Amino acid sequence: MTTTSVPTAPTTLSSCLREGTREQHSQAEGMEFIDGLVNGRLSREAYTALAVQQLAIYTALEAAGAQLRAAGADQGLVFDELTRVPAIESDLAFLLGADWAARVTFLPATQEYAQRLVACSSDLSLYAAHAYTRYLGDLSGGQVVKRMVQRHYGVPDEGVGFYDFPQIHKLKPFKDVYRERLDGLGLDDAQLAATVEEARVAFRLNQAVFAELGALHN
Ligand code: HEM
Predict the structure, then answer these.
(1) pLDDT under 50: residue ranges of the chain
(2) Which DSSP string corresponds to the chain?
């Protein structure tokens, strides 16, 4: 008796993340707050409120990355080029004024998101799920958000630095390198499944923030 082997597509982490969050991505993209923001139905204040929430999210995400790197456990997945907190602070200084730090408040969904990031900060594969969801999103759809915010609400470059990656000259090859790093993490099947599941959690946490922002700004 002969056995025939059925060729199977390679299951890389990056392809599993993309496929495993495709549905969540279109849900997030279609949310009222995001759709309203990119189609000019909201306001500069709504954009500013999003930037404020991003401060809490990236502070926690980047603290997690720094912790993994300090422990020598980041496997090259933490890139200085991606660091967003200084850009968000500078955007907020422009949007809210020099006393911006005294004027920011974080929504309950944002606090929940930040807490989840703290809980993921000693596990590289869980961190990877969150970093993937945010950074690849910023390098992709984020670029659309930037253009639309500038077009519809007249926000100058000083207020959208979050979407600029001055140390990354070409976004597409950088995203390919990022995916290669994800694929090189060497996860077993169970870790891979847990990472995709955590990315779905990350999308849900983002959606919850957009829902709360939508209730305030739509
Ligand atoms: C206006 C809203 C959005 C638009 C127009 C948009 C658009 C896009 C596009 C065109 C890509 C594909 C880029 C590529 O293959 O190189 C992409 C990828 C991605 N987006 Fe979005 N996006 C939006 C919102 C979001 C949100 C809210 C998140 C998560 C919080 C997100 C996370 C991602 C991720 C993780 C990827 C990488 C997918 C992959 O290749 O694995 N996006 N987005």
Answers:
(1) 1-2
(2) ----PPP-----HHHHHHHHTHHHHHHHHTSHHHHHHHTT-S-HHHHHHHHHHHHHHHHHHHHHHHHHHHTT-STT---GGG--HHHHHHHHHHHH-TTGGGG----HHHHHHHHHHHHTTT-HHHHHHHHIIIIIHHHTHHHHHHHHHHHHH---GGG-GGG--TT-S-HHHHHHHHHHHHHTT---HHHHHHHHHHHHHHHHHHHHHHHHHHHHH-
pLDDT for the residue 144: 98
Is residue 163 marked as binding?
no
* Domains of the chain with bracketed CATH: 14-217 (1.20.910.10)
Ligand 1: residues with CB < 6 A are 17-18, 25, 28-29, 34, 38, 132-133, 136-137, 140-141, 144-145, 175, 203, 206
